[in-house]
Amino acid sequence: MNYQAIKTIYLFEMNRTFRTLVQSILSPVLTTSLYFIVFGSAIGSRIQTIDDVSYGAFIIPGLIMLSVLMQAITNGSTGIYFPKFIGTVYEILSAPVTTAEIICGYVGAAATKAFAIGMIILATATLFVDFHIAHPLWMVIFLAITCISFALFGFIIGILARNFEQLNLVPMLVITPLVFLGGSFYSISMLPPFWQTVTLFNPVVYLISMFRWSFFGTADVDVVISVAAIIVFMIVNIFIIYRIFATGYRLKQ
Amino acid sequence: MSLLKINALTKSYENGFQALKSVDLEVREGEILALLGPNGAGKTSLISATCGLTNITSGTITVGGYDVVKQPLEARRQISLVPQEIMLEPFEKVITTVRLSRGLFGLAPDEAHIEKTLRRLSLWDKRDTRNMALSGGMKRRVMIAKALSHSPKLLFLDEPSAGVDVELRNDMWRLVEELKEQGVTIILTTHYIEEAEEVADRVAIINHGDILLVEEKADLMARLGKKELIIELQEAAKEIPAGLADLALSLSDDGLKLTYSYDAKQERTGITNLLSHLSDAGMRLKDLQTHTSSLEEIFVSLVHKDEDDNNEKASS
Known about the structure:
The complex is a heterodimer of chains A (about 250) and B (about 325). Chain A is mainly alpha-helical. Chain A is built from ten helices and no strands. Chain A starts with a helix and ends in a 6-residue tail after the last helix. By secondary structure, chain B is of the alpha/beta class. Classes of the chains: A mainly alpha (about 250), B alpha/beta (about 325). The interface of A and B includes residues 5, 19, 82, 96 and 247 of A.
C-alpha cells in the first residue's frame, strides 16, 4: 500500500478546505441556524412533541443529514472533477497509485470534511435546543458511514460529470428533495398509509431513521435494515469506482 | 540495454481514428531520443499509452522490464511526464504543487531535493507564489520541477519548448544534458528540429501513426544529409559545359549559379575535377559556398515521401 500517496492526496485535499475555511464552515452553520430559529424555535414551539421528543430536537438528525449529504457529495465530486477540468488528473493517472489509494485519499478527505461539518452543526444545535443523544457511539459511526458512502457517490459524479452543470445536478435536483421528503422534518408515521409506502422507496428515509434512532432511540424503519442498506450502497459505489478506473471510462481516451 | 520497449503498439480512438499503427520502438538506457513528427502524427498518443493516460488497443509496452498494463505500478514508478499543455492547480503554491508530485510517487518528503530542483529551475524565490500568478515560462518550469521531484529514470518531454522564450529554451536544453549525465533516459518531442539536432543521440520520425525510421542522429545525417557546392559565376552561362554533363550538376534559371551535389565522405568528391573543367571551359568564378542539409530538411523530405507513398497507395 502506497500510504505516502494516500497521505499526500488526503492532505492536499484538506488543504484546499483550509484555504476557504470561513466559506466552508460558515455557510452550512448559518443555514442550519436559520432552520433551527424558524422550525425549531418560532414554528416548532407550536408543534406538539413527536415520539416524546420536542420538535426542535426532532429535526436535528434530519438537518445534520441534509448538510452532511450535500457536503459529502459536493466535496467528493469537486475533489476529482477539478483536476479533470484543469487537466492535472494526468498526474494521478500516471502515478504509481492504485484505485484503493486514490479512493482513500480523495474520498477520505471529502468524508472528513462532511463529518466535521456534521459535528459543527450538532454543536450549533446545542445553542438552540436542549437534547440528549441516546447512543453517541452509534451516532458517530452512522455519521461516518454516511459521510464515506456519499463521498464515494460524489466521487462517481465528479468523474462522470462533463461540465459544472452536471456536477451540481444531482445534489440540487435529487438529494435536496429526497432529504426534505425523507422525514427530516416529520416522522413518516404521520403520513397517510399510501404515502408511507411510497416514502419507503426513498433511500434517505433509512439514513435519517437510522440517525434519529441513535439520537432518541426510536426509528421509522428497523435500524438493521437501514445499516444494511447504507453498507450495500457503499459497496456498490466502490464497485462502480473500481470499474471506472479499470476501464478508464471518462478518465482515459 | 533497453529501458523502454514498445512492441506492435496500436491505438484506435472511439471515433475510429487510428493514431498508432503497429509501432515498434526501443529506447536505450541513458540516451536522448528525439521523436519527430508533424501534428497528429501520433507522438502524444505514444507518450500517453506509455504513461497510462490512454488505453492501449493492442501491443505491449515495457519499462525496465515491467509491462505498463500488467504491472502498471512498477512501470510508472520509473516514468515521469512533462505534458505539452501547462496544467497546474491555479490556487496552489509552487512548492505545494511540487511536493504533491513527489508524494504521489510514494516517496517520503525530501525538502533538500525539492529545494535543489526548484533552485535549478530558478523557482526557489517563487516557491510560495501561487501558480496562477506565474508567467507562462515559469509555469513551464513548475511542470518540469514536478516531473523531476521524484527522480525518474525515464522522462518524457512533450513539446517542452513550445511557447517559451529563447533563454528558457536554452536553459532547458542545458538541463536535459545534465539529466543525461545523471543517467536519465529522455524522450522528447519537439517542433524545433534544430534542437533535436543539437541534443538528441537518436532520432525517431513518426508520421500517420507509423515510425518511419529510428537512427543515430549522426548516421542519419551522414546517410541522408546531402552536401552541396554552390558556385556563383561572374557571367551567366547558357548551359552546363558539355564535359560536365555526367556530373550531378544543375544550373540556376538566371545562369549565374551552378549547384554540385556530392558525398563528402567519399575519398574523391569530384570537386577538383569540376573546377578544372570549369576553368577549361573559360568560366570565371565569383564565389564558392558549401551547404549541408539539416535534420529539418531530412525530416521534411522523409515525411513528404511517406505522404506521397500513402497517396499512391490510396489512388492505386
